[in-house]
Design brief:
alpha/beta, 6 helices, 17 strands, globular
Length: 336
């Protein structure tokens, strides 16, 4: 009802409306159009293509609110680790989840819902219950927050990468610890993913970074600081790749690292082959206002803005067109 009451005096919203008042009339008209659209454009069969997943690692407890208390450990919130960071309050691992949400499910700002500029994104568990079959539909897997790397999850993850997947992780998501002490660990606590071994930790300014052994055979993707120390490395494993951010802290722990993490995620997401791609028409038409779903023979694009028309570039194969959508309008595209 929000777009239909926008601009209406507060007193009117509180006192209610009569059946023929303007906001109820506009609301009914919207519902009528939605009904007609659904009849004229029956939804494609099957489920939408989903090539990207965010991983909830072993003992991850993110519930969509970074300030929540993980695993309901309210009585343990007084326990601190380094720099008085509360170990059982929503903190660095959960802030890292927020970075992933900002990339894959950016809040549109006017609707109370999020856009999906890279298409449908699943959230999957990667733990001791995970089978290789659970991950085979995805081409990109991004770890969200906390993860305890167990022998089973390591084996499944590495096999999935070897078969052609691309995984994005950070050093704190490769720990064998169960106690969330993400600022109080050593090299011995790290389970080397895909044979990427940490020799020691070094400083670049005030950023603590893992130094990777030469025998790990990685290539540097991004650097940090005046000394240009490696910040992100990648390694080919079979048909796939693993990208690893080398910060001792979780990427969401502070702005500069969070921004680098979001950049890394956006670059990898853009590399995932999709049958329909959205691109910004202008700075004003940010992709956070758009949602898209791709099925076997049809695709849908929706403008989530409830107040403004917005334009977006839609690419299908080698053809690109600029599409303008009314507020909360859905357009259907044929795929062949």
């Amino acid at each position: 009802a929000h777009p239909h009451t926008w601009g209406v005096p507060e007193a009117n919203r509180k006192s209610g409306y009569r059946y023929d008042d303007d906001p109820p009339r506009r609301y009914r008209e919207t519902i009528r159009k939605c009904h007609i659209f659904s009849k004229e454009h029956p939804r494609a069969k099957g489920t939408p293509e989903t090539k990207i997943a965010l991983a909830m690692g072993t003992y991850d407890a993110y519930i969509g609110m970074s300030g929540a208390t993980p695993w309901a450990q309210h009585t343990n919130r007084v326990e601190h680790i380094k720099d008085k960071v509360n170990i059982w309050a929503g903190s660095h691992p959960e802030f890292t989840w927020d970075c992933a949400r900002a990339v894959f499910m950016p809040y549109s700002g006017t609707t109370g819902v999020s856009g999906m500029p890279y298409g449908q994104v699943d959230i999957v568990g990667v733990d001791d219950m995970t089978r290789l079959d659970d991950l085979e539909r995805y081409r990109l897997l991004v770890f969200g927050g906390w993860n305890t790397m167990t022998p089973h999850s390591k084996k499944v993850l590495e096999k999935w990468i070897e078969d052609g997947g691309v995984a994005v992780m950070s050093i704190p998501q490769c720990l064998k610890r169960y106690d969330r002490r993400y600022l109080d660990y050593t090299e011995k606590d790290i389970v080397p993913p895909c044979g990427i071994e940490v020799e020691k930790f070094v400083l670049s300014g005030d950023v603590k970074l893992a130094s990777i052994s030469k025998k790990s055979k990685v290539e540097t993707v991004a650097t940090i600081g005046k000394d240009k120390l490696p910040l992100v490395v990648r390694k080919r494993v079979g048909k796939g790749f693993i990208y690893l951010m080398l910060t001792y802290e979780s990427p969401g722990s502070r702005g500069i690292l969070g921004n680098e993490w979001k950049k890394l995620l956006a670059e990898r997401a853009a590399e995932v082959e999709q049958r329909l791609v959205l691109k910004e028409e202008s700075e004003d038409d940010n992709l956070r206002f758009f949602m898209r779903s791709v099925y076997e023979d049809k695709a849908y694009v929706m403008n989530l803005d409830m107040r403004m028309k917005r334009k977006v570039k839609v690419s299908i194969g080698d053809k690109t067109s600029v599409v303008e959508l009314d507020p909360i309008e859905i357009k259907e595209f044929e795929l062949r």
